[in-house]
């Protein structure tokens, strides 16, 4: 049986896949916009630290705790932005070319769309947890309905994250985890 060589594609047939493949570069302005958002969060963080520093003598413990939780929230959102910027660019646009760099994030070695989704969902849960903690600390100034909705939203994030992690596990390893060859016969 002889192998039939595939027909070479005409110039028109190669243009469409090339255009589709190159369209990934349209995401670059989106990542640059997220870098601008990151800079805005740095500004917001520094402004809040300055405000906390100059008013520290007039604040009670609860107010300071809420301000610090607000700072933590800004840091966590900033971390989320970094994961989206670096992980998204590396996954969907092009390699960053930082292999072997001493500052290369460890998680970047094994990033793919599934891992990125799970990491992002965990970051959202963490951010939601900070907001929920702030709400519980300041519960006297919140309505029961507002608190209930925040808890419900947080639970929705948790359930979504567990579902995404479970689906990622099934699609990458099967329902029982990585499959190992257990047949040791010769």
Overview of this protein structure:
With 186 residues, the chain is mainly α. The protein folds into two domains: 23-96; 112-176. Helix content is 68%, strand content 0%. α2 (28-55) packs antiparallel against α3 (61-92), α3 (61-92) runs antiparallel to α4 (113-137) and α4 runs antiparallel to α5 (144-173). It starts with 10 loop residues before the first helix and ends in a 13-residue tail after the last helix.
> What fraction, in percent, of the residue positions are helical?
55-70%
Task: Describe the sheet with the most strands.
Answer: none
Overall tally of domains: 2
Head-to-tail CA distance between termini: 34 Å
Coarse morphology: elongated
What is the H-and-E element order?
HHHHH
- Note the beta-strand portion: under 5%
Number of strands: 0
Could you say which structural class the secondary elements and strand pairing correspond to? mainly alpha
Oligomer: single chain
Please mark out the parts with pLDDT under 50 across 5 or more consecutive residues, or reply none: 180-186
Radius of gyration: 24 Å
Number of helices: 5
What is the average per-residue confidence, as pLDDT, rounded to a whole number? 84
